[in-house]
Write a structure and sequence with these properties.
The protein has two domains: about 1-225, Rossmann fold; about 235-320, OB fold (Dihydrolipoamide Acetyltransferase, E2P), CATH 2.40.50. Helix content is about 25%, strand content about 35%. It contains nine helices and 17 strands. The chain has helices at about 40-50, 95-100, 105-120, 135-150, 165-185, 195-200, 220-225, 230, 315-320; strands at about 1-10, 15-25, 30-35, 55-60, 65, 80, 155-160, 185-190, 205-210, 210-215, 235-240, 255-260, 260-265, 270-280, 285-290, 295-300, 310-315. The strands form four sheets. A six-stranded mixed beta sheet has the order 6-7-8-3-9-10, sandwiched between helices. A five-stranded antiparallel beta sheet has the order 13-17-14-15-16. β7 (about 155-160), α5 (about 165-185) and β8 (about 185-190) form a beta-alpha-beta unit. α3 packs across α4. The chain is globular. The relative contact order is 0.12.
Length: about 325
């Protein structure tokens, strides 16, 4: 189990991580999400032992994670950390990069292991290509294979799919997270991608300004967001007065509603004016205005600018979100 206890850290008197505490069970996939600059990457480096904590403690099982003050070579032996710079050797081949830290005592086993990992990241055709000739996305896939070569207990990934084409990203993510589950490897992934946070993670930790705002099972963080900031990390979200979408006409509170949860209806108290329609492929995102406030909803077809329409939210969503 990974335990983070009241961890704080800062650069030059500027606090980046502030009194962070959480636990992660072995074999769990965790998504670390939040706006740029919220402290995700710094937290991963602290978990790996690249920095010294200003206060607090981090443990993997019973072993304390210590930084450069205590280790000549920073980093935890049981962990692997993949930063955004990939750390590949440009003048050796893909296969040599992946197998760099594997033993040469049993060459056939090493060859088989390298092949297995390259197959997982769909890079077998480039096994004998030097890393310097690869695209950014190809280098990222090789770097993923490399950090898995010695099969760590904990894998720390910082935006690991950011350079990979959309058509290949889905299969690669499925391959990777299926592999991690089968091996019982704990994975923490810092990401801006809501698909990664929802489809492939068991637990989601939301950060803002170096603090944790939410930490729960991934579906719960999405379905019952604590505030608009948390909800906005998953897409367009609206904060709507409850009285406009509920039978409780005297309700004073507001409710968070994702754009796909709003529908056209013949009449309701939520009347909006259409400003623009954005084509998303399988639907249109409609920008509208009510009471001088912007509101987003989705619709199967575009709507004319200036058109006045009425919107509703399913009663089950209202009751669940209250």
């Amino acid at each position: 189990m990974l335990q983070v206890q009241n961890a704080s850290f800062g650069y030059d008197e500027r606090t980046v991580i502030s009194k962070v505490s959480f636990t992660i069970q072995k074999g769990t996939n965790v998504a670390l999400i939040g706006e740029s600059g919220c402290g995700k990457s710094t937290l991963l480096k602290l978990l790996y032992g690249l920095y010294d904590l200003d206060e607090g403690a981090i443990f993997w099982d019973e072993t304390a994670v210590l930084g450069p003050k205590f280790n000549l070579i920073p980093g935890m032996e049981q962990m692997k950390y993949l930063a955004q710079d990939f750390d590949l050797m440009p003048y050796i081949t893909v296969a040599e990069n992946v197998g760099k830290y594997l033993s040469n005592i049993y060459p056939e086993q090493k060859k088989q292991r390298v092949h297995e990992l390259l197959e997982m990241v769909e890079m077998t055709n480039f096994a004998h290509t030097k890393a310097k000739y690869l695209s950014g996305g190809q280098q990222q896939r090789v770097a993923l294979a490399k950090v898995l070569a010695l099969e760590p207990e904990v894998l720390l990934l910082d935006e690991p799919f950011s350079n990979i084409d959309s058509f290949r990203k889905g299969a690669l993510r499925r391959n990777l997270f299926t592999y991690l589950k089968s091996k019982g490897i704990t994975c923490i992934i810092a990401t801006h991608d809501s698909v990664e946070a929802l489809s492939f993670s068991d637990q989601t930790i939301v950060m803002k300004d170096g603090k944790i705002l939410a930490n729960d099972a991934s579906p719960k963080v999405y379905l019952k967001p604590k505030n608009k900031y948390v909800a906005s990390l998953y897409g367009e979200v609206n904060e709507i007065p409850l009285r406009l979408i509920s039978d409780d006409f005297y309700a004073s509170e507001t409710i968070l509603v994702y754009s796909h949860e709003l529908f056209l209806t013949d009449f309701s108290d939520l009347a909006v004016t259409v400003k623009h329609s954005y084509f998303k492929g399988n639907t249109f995102l409609i920008k509208s205005v009510y009471d001088k406030k912007v509101l987003f909803f989705e619709n199967p077809f575009p709507l004319d600018e200036g058109q006045n329409v009425f919107l509703k939210v399913e009663e089950e969503v209202v009751e669940f979100r209250r």
